[in-house]
Amino acid sequence: MAEAKTYVLAGKKLGIVPILRAGLGMVDGMTRLIPAARVGHIGLYRDPQTLKPVDYYSKLPPDTSERDMIIVDPMLATGGSAVAGINVIKRAGAKSVKLVCIIAAPEGVEAVQKAHPDVDIFIAAIDEKLNDHGYIIPGLGDAGDRLFGTK
Q1: Alpha-carbon span 75 to 106, nearest angstrom
Q2: Is the dihedral of CA 122, 123, 129, 131 positive or negative?
Q3: In angstroms, rounded to a whole number, what is the distance separating the alpha carbons of residues 126 and 101?
Q4: In 9-135, which ranges are E strands?
Q5: I need a surface site. Which of 42, 47, 77, 103 has the fewest CB within 10 A?
Q6: CA neighbor of 108 nearest in space, from 137, 90, 129
Q7: Which residues are catalytic?
């Protein structure tokens, strides 16, 4: 094993915004690729009865309107949190928003595309469907619980 020379993304003003808490697991990797990016945070959780997102926290770079913003969240299930997160960033003045996920359900992709057709979505894998509880099947379960060893 030896040191390797790698590339980093530079040029544009970029912002990385994880959706708390599972999105935190993607921040280090993104900032290694884009070291000059500013990091904001959006706190959302899914109400277990309605499956609708509940917004509890938002802290974005003060120059959000001047940055290309990238939302990171490992799971795109119903799309509710992603749509809500995009809404928060757009209200803060962002004109360019992208969504990066690891696993998605077709229902979530459709919901984001319907609500925000101008937002590009980057996904590593699309699984089969959602179950009755809004979890991706086969999926990985709750990404935040897996990341932080809770539940």
Answers
A1: 12
A2: negative
A3: 10
A4: 14-20, 38-39, 41-46, 53-59, 68-72, 75-76, 96-104, 120-126, 129-130
A5: 47
A6: 129
A7: 46, 50, 142, 145
pLDDT of res. 145: 63
- Alpha carbon distance 69, 12 (integer Å): 11
How many residues does this entry show for the chain? Answer: 151
Mean pLDDT of the chain: 90
Of 100, 104, 97, the closest CA to residue 15 belongs to 97
Cα dihedral sign for 124, 93, 23, 42? Answer: negative
Question: How much is the pTM?
Answer: 0.86
Q: Are 121 and 110 in contact (CB under 8 A)?
A: no
* pLDDT > 70? residue 9: no
Residues 44-101: tens digit of each pLDDT: 987 878 878 899 999 999 999 999 999 999 999 999 999 999 999 999 999 999 999 9
CA proximity to 137, closest of 110, 102, 104, 100: 104
* Rounded distance between C-alpha atoms, residue 39 and residue 31, angstroms: 8
pLDDT beyond 70 at 2: yes
